[in-house]
């Protein structure tokens, strides 16, 4: 059976996911069979496994750091917010249904057997399990029947590393205050603290570290520097979504309120000379070379938002001036003629689309989940290129008689739609293939009258990600007391 260690945080966005990935990579480099685990993840970024099951992207990143195939065992419960008060609940990769927060909290204890079965299955096939907590263990209103933080640590007998983020300030109060709100039994589970995202001279922190250890009675396992690496983040708090200056090829992704799977665009953003900006205001849209409408968990609501903000009109004007537009998943649905939700999958109702593609979408209660590959059809600048990825959506889209499909799938079926320089597809992973990225950017360069070294864009994205994981592991290994970490792991609870 595997030994387990758990990373918890003083709050959301302290870097738990990335530190978990770093420890996964370090243990792998040291010769161990490693797997990540997060009992319950709340995020709109999801992934479809080879079995057609849905899991959180954060555990996919951590699985990649371990060098193993992602599995829903690593994330048995996924909550995808649908409204401010409720989420779609996914258990073992399958949709259980939509629930309000109150409904979910009333039944979540029933999910413990699913959590423990997944954990024990992973444990039987690995040497080390690195567990990630959620939010903070000091959210005292949520401690009853906890299944993600201290409750999970107790069930899995996993010692805890408590992480605080120094970036917003008050990290010593974060760590000491969190421990103060824990019960004596829970405090005993915390074996060390970690300060994350530090910038500057660490020696300046030394007096505070000594006081922190004296106040908490816990050793500080290290101070991890802010590391500028290109590794997918868990949710929309990601720094990727912050505004930045346009690059030579400027791509604007609309930052929808229920934006999902923004990691679809990471490979594009990694290309030299190409910049991806996330935009939610007309004044920030400016004059991009390409507009992308991304996936969303609430297509109708987000399309209404797009109209209310004036962004729909701005995108249509840009398109009339020659700017290409691409829609992925929910963004693809928005580009059509109409969207109808008779079944109430997203709350019901109907809405007319942006009218850029001759398609119509109707929602169904059953979610479509599959991994696919295909070839771009003739008549587009991507013709003949292959693409692969996954579909994950509730809607069924039909093409008008005059419409042209974008892809021919491996099973011979058509997928997506193209009309001039407007593309739409349900395929997540659209830009991951180098040949697709290069052809797209080459077209944008021609339209703009500039030249880029497209060989640099044709890099092996998987190899690039491996380099990023190794760089992350090196930075964290250097800054943490790994001898102490291994001692904590070995001693357990």
Describe the structure.
This protein has 493 residues and is an alpha/beta fold. Helix content is 32%, strand content 29%. It is built from 17 helices and 26 strands. The strands form 6 sheets. It has a 6-stranded parallel sheet with strand order 2-9-1-10-11-12, sandwiched between helices. Strands 15-13-16-18-26-25 form a 6-stranded mixed sheet. A hairpin with a 7-residue loop joins β19 (338-341) and β20 (349-352). The protein is globular and about 70 Å long.
Explain the layout of strands and helices:
Elements: E1 3-9, H1 16-29, E2 34-37, E3 40-42, E4 46-48, E5 54-56, H2 57-66, E6 77-83, E7 86-91, E8 94-100, H3 101-107, H4 112-124, E9 128-132, H5 150-156, E10 160-165, H6 171-180, H7 184-189, E11 190-198, H8 206-216, E12 220-225, E13 249-254, E14 259-260, H9 266-269, E15 274-279, H10 282-285, E16 290-293, E17 295-296, H11 299-308, H12 311-320, E18 325-328, H13 330-334, E19 338-341, E20 349-352, E21 359-376, E22 386-399, E23 407-409, E24 414-415, E25 417-419, E26 422-425, H14 434-448, H15 454-457, H16 461-479, H17 482-491
Parallel strand pairs: 1-9, 1-10, 2-9, 3-6, 10-11, 11-12, 13-15, 13-16, 16-18, 18-26, 19-21
Antiparallel strand pairs: 4-5, 6-7, 7-8, 14-17, 19-20, 21-22, 21-23, 23-24, 25-26
């Amino acid at each position: 059976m595997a030994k387990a260690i758990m990373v918890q945080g003083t709050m959301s966005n302290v870097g738990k996911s990335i530190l978990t990935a770093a420890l996964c990579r370090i243990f792998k480099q040291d010769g161990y069979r490693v797997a990540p685990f997060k009992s319950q993840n709340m995020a709109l970024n999801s992934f479809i496994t080879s079995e057609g099951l849905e899991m959180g992207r954060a555990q996919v990143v951590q699985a990649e750091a371990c060098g193993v195939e992602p599995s829903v065992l690593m994330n048995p419960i996924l909550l995808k917010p649908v409204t401010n008060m409720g989420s779609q609940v996914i258990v073992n990769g399958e949709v259980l249904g939509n629930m309000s927060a109150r409904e979910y909290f009333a039944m979540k204890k029933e999910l413990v057997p699913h959590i423990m079965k997944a954990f024990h299955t992973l444990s039987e096939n690995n040497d080390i399990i690195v567990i990630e907590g959620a939010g903070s263990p000091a959210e005292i209103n949520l401690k009853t029947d906890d299944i993600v933080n201290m409750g999970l640590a107790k069930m899995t007998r996993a010692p805890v590393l408590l992480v605080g983020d120094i970036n917003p300030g008050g990290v010593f109060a974060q760590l000491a205050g969190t421990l103060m709100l824990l019960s004596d039994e829970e405090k005993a589970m915390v074996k060390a603290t970690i300060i994350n995202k530090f910038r500057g001279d660490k020696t300046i922190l030394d007096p505070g570290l000594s006081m922190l250890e004296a106040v908490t009675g816990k050793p500080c396992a290290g101070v991890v520097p802010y590391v500028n690496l290109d590794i997918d983040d868990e949710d929309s708090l990601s720094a990727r979504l912050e505004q930045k200056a346009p690059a030579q090829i400027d791509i604007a992704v609309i930052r929808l309120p229920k934006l999902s799977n923004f990691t679809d665009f990471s490979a594009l953003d990694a290309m030299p000379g190409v910049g991806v900006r996330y935009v939610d205001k007309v004044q920030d849209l400016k004059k991009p070379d390409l507009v992308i409408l991304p996936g969303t968990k609430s297509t109708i609501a987000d399309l209404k938002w797009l109209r209310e903000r004036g962004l729909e009109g701005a995108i249509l004007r840009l398109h009339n001036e020659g700017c290409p537009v691409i829609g992925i998943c929910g963004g693809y649905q928005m580009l059509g003629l109409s969207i109808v939700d008779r079944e109430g999958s997203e709350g019901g109702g109907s809405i007319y689309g942006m009218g850029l593609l001759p398609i119509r979408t109707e929602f169904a209660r059953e979610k479509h989940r599959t991994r696919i590959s295909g070839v771009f059809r003739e008549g587009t600048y991507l013709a003949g290129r292959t693409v692969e990825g996954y579909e994950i959506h509730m809607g069924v889209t039909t093409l008008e008689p005059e419409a042209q499909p974008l892809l021919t799938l491996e099973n011979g079926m058509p997928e997506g739609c193209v009309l001039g320089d407007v593309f739409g597809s349900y395929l997540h992973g659209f830009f991951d293939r180098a040949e697709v990225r290069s052809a797209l950017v080459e077209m944008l360069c021609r339209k703009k009258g500039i030249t880029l070294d497209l060989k640099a864009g044709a890099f092996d994205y998987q190899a690039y990600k491996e380099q990023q994981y190794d760089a992350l592991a090196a930075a964290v290994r250097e800054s943490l007391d790994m001898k102490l970490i291994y001692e904590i792991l070995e001693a357990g609870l």
